């Protein structure tokens, strides 16, 4: 995330929305999220780059999903990345939405209802939005965040070809 922010500079924004719907992994209060990132996960003094806006926790699935995520999921129903990224991440069946966790007795628990085909499967699923606010691509949690750079560059080149003026990057 910070690498993308650094690569594209001020003409690029990242919006981060913590969510506790995936294994209850984000149980801290909204006021504790930045401290948790800095000291626990990922830790090591991590702080989001200036181009990253951290929002309060939201639900992304189910009847209580934030309207932004209901809209994003309606625009692109499933992640569009290749199955190679899924297999490289160790997921043997790319059609599974969530894998059973041995630490939980090989069970799964979905923490929202209704469950739909377009649900976000896990933390770090990503959406690419163009300068006009259109959702242009959806990536699974397995897709390396830095690899989105190629798609961002394509969007920026298309804008340049159309004569759209964008801020220069460092």
From TrEMBL:
GO molecular function, one term: glutathione peroxidase activity
GO CC entries: extracellular region
Subcellular location: Secreted
Family to which this protein belongs: Belongs to the glutathione peroxidase family.
Domain of life the protein comes from: Eukaryota
The keyword DNA damage is annotated on this UniProt entry: no
One of the protein's GO biological processes: response to oxidative stress
A Pfam family reported for this protein in Swiss-Prot or TrEMBL: GSHPx
TM region positions: none
Protein name, as recorded: Glutathione peroxidase
PROSITE patterns membership: GLUTATHIONE_PEROXID_2 (PS00763), GLUTATHIONE_PEROXID_3 (PS51355)
Chief place where the protein resides: secreted
Entry keywords, A to Z: Oxidoreductase, Peroxidase, Secreted, Signal
UniProt keyword Lipoprotein, yes or no: no
């Amino acid at each position: 995330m910070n690498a993308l922010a650094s690569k594209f500079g001020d003409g690029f924004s990242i919006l981060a929305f913590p969510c506790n719907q995936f294994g209850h992994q984000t149980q801290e209060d909204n006021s504790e999220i930045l401290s948790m990132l800095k000291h626990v996960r990922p830790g090591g003094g991590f702080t989001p780059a200036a181009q990253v806006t951290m929002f309060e926790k939201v639900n992304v699935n189910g009847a209580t999903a934030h309207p932004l995520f209901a809209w994003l999921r309606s625009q692109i129903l499933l992640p569009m990345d290749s199955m190679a990224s899924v297999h490289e991440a160790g997921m043997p069946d790319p059609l599974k939405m969530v894998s059973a966790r041995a630490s939980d007795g090989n069970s799964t628990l979905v923490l929202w209802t209704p469950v739909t085909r377009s649900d976000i499967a896990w933390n770090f699923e990503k959406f690419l939005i163009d300068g006009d606010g259109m959702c242009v691509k959806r990536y699974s949690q397995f897709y390396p965040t830095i690899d989105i750079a190629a798609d961002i560059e394509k969007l920026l080149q298309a804008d340049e070809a159309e004569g759209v003026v964008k801020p220069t990057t460092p």
